[in-house]
Amino acid sequence: AYAVYDLSGRGYVGFFSYQCKAIYAHGDFLYVEDRAGETTIYDENLRPVRARRIPLLGAIAAGEPIFAEEEHETYVDVGDSVRADFALEVHGRSMEPVYRDGDVVYIRSQNDVLDGQVAAVVIGLATLKRVYHLPIGVQLMPINPDCAPMLFTAENSGSVRILGLAVGYFRKTV
User: Fold this and answer.
1) In this predicted structure, what is the pLDDT of residue 129?
2) Which of 25, 95, 113, 139 is least surrounded by Cβ atoms within 10 Å, i.e. has the fewest?
3) What is the C-alpha separation between 128 and 168, in angstroms, rounded?
4) Catalytic residue, candidates 21, 81, 94, 159
5) Which of 129, 157, 159, 172 is catalytic?
C-alpha cells in the first residue's frame, strides 16, 4: 500500500498535488485522477500502467435482484491485464465481505462459469452470486451467511442466464 511519506520521499507528492484532483490506492495500484477527469494508473514502482476503458453498464444486486440499467455513457479505467468486457456497480450486502455496496465489479462476458465462481446472473433481474450447477438445477449462493441462497430447478432454471464471470473489482476507500 502507498503512504504519503513514501511518495514524498520520491518527490511525487508535489507533482501529484499540482496535477491531480484525486489520488487513491487499490491493491498494488495507485489511481491518479487529473483535473480534466482522466485517470492514470501507476504500479508499485510508480510507473504508469497501460489502461483501457470498459463500459459501466449500471447496477447489479448483491442481495435482492434488481434491474441492471445499461448506461453506456459511463466508463471505468482498468489495467490492461484485467480481462473484463464491462463493469457493474454492486448494490446490497449478500456478497460481503468480498464485494461491498458501492464496489465496481469487472465482468468478463461468458455464458457459463465453473461451480463456486462468482458471476453476474440475470434471473429476470440482475444479481451477483456464486454459481453451483446441481443435478436438479442451478443454485445461486451469496457469500454473506446471513443471506439465503436461491435455487432454480429444471422447471424454472430456464430463466437463469449467466452474463459473465467476475474477474476483479474496485473499491474507493475515500
Assistant:
1) 96
2) 25
3) 13
4) 94
5) 129
Q: The cell 474496485 sits on which residue?
A: 170
Instruction: Work out the burial of residue 95: count CB atoms within 10 Å of its CB; fewer than 13 is exposed, 13-18 middle, 19 or more buried.
Output: buried
* Beta carbons within 8 Å of 89's beta carbon, 6+ residues apart: 56, 58, 59, 60, 102, 103, 104, 105
DSSP strands (E only) in 102-160: 104-109, 118-122, 126-134, 137-141, 150-153
Model confidence pLDDT, tens digit, residues 121-170: 998 788 999 999 999 999 999 999 999 999 999 888 778 899 999 999 98
C-alpha 44/C-alpha 2 separation (Å) is 8
Active site residue 94: yes
